[in-house]
Amino acid sequence: MLKNKIYKYLSGEIFKNFITILLTFTAIAWVVRAVNFLDLMVEDGFNTTIYFKYAALNITSIITRFVPLAFLISLTVSILKFERQQELLILWTSGLNKIKITNIFLLIALFITSFQIIMSLFVNPLLLNKSRALLGDANYKIYPLLRSNDFSDAFKGITFYIDKKNINNELENIFIKDVGGSLNYIVGEKEKKNVTIIAKKGFAAKDKLILFNGTMQTLNLKNEIKNIKFEKTEVIIADMTTRTILQPKIQETSSLILLKCIFNKNKNLKIENCSTDNYKGEVMQTLSRRSGSPLYIPLIAVLVSFLLIHKKKKKYNFLKKYVLFILTFIILILSEILLKYTGLFLLATISYYVFPIIVSIFFYIYLIKKITTEKII
């Protein structure tokens, strides 16, 4: 009973440190990314609600990127803390088995690995896809996009220039150049090369511009120019296409669709983000990141468990903690480097999955041998 309480205490301390470190890293990275997302409001005209929802839906993808590093730091810090407070020495003298402690570390690592795989394979793609769909369903506000004495090209094929504007959404000396055909509905003809609008005044509503006292110049496919004067006209934002990417990226695509892309032999079957061999390489790399990267977490647990082995000379114990941490950190870096090659060669992909398993087994057997032959001090 006492041993079970001790094991629960050790596990609780490791989990507490892991969650604290993970949330700290996530908070810092999320704030940095959220600052980058400010372009959604400044450049693309989305409102603050859309901005915060979009930023919130990206949190889980940030969390999973820091899980291996957070686990490495939390496990190392926990063991060093137990050692510094003489808790490990008390445990060994009371008869607790180091192999049992190592197995507890491995069980924690397997639990975190399962969490990482579930988040990476299912939760993250779902939330990221929702964040992309959120932009597609959102309404734009054109007023933030229009800046005084500045050209704005937030919409494809359309350039805006405003001489002056004030806080009442009133605009002066407005210039609009359309080369994509988005404003053809104003002149009532579909086949127009471009449309140029110059207006003295106007104001911005939620989804449109209302212009007064201006001229509209059109150029058709026959290079014929027509000028139309107007007292009032409206430019509808809904008829324009924003430059914001609305199609889901590979990392925002569900794992099931990506698997279909990899094993699809029917070229007539159209699958999103699976049009060329190059895309299939990126798909394989994405799947390897989702399901292969978490396999390196148990390897972290095995390597850090070597801290449980005590040396007679203190200088060896002092150097050992730095050597083990640096070695494990290098393995995490190598896993990221090797990940780049998983989409290029089948052998690289297989090696990426097999390497952490084989190395973990090898070091685990070696660790057990070192623990069983360790001299009690």
Task: Describe the model.
- With 377 residues, the protein is an alpha+beta fold.
- It has two domains: 2-138 and 247-372, no CATH class; 143-239, no CATH class.
- Helix content is 56%, strand content 16%.
- It has twelve helices and six strands.
- A six-stranded antiparallel β-sheet has the order 1-2-3-4-5-6.
- Strand 1 and strand 2 (158-165) form a beta hairpin.
- Helix 4 (59-84) packs antiparallel against helix 6 (98-137) and helix 6 runs antiparallel to helix 10 (296-304).
- The longest helix is centred in the N-terminal third of the chain and has 40 residues, at 98-137.
- The chain is elongated and about 95 Å long.
Provide a quick synopsis of the model:
This protein has helices at 2-36, 39-42, 48-57, 59-84, 87-93, 98-137, 184-187, 255-263, 277-291, 296-304, 314-339, 346-372, and strands at residues 150-155, 158-165, 170-178, 192-204, 208-220, 225-236. The chain is of the alpha+beta class and 377 residues long.
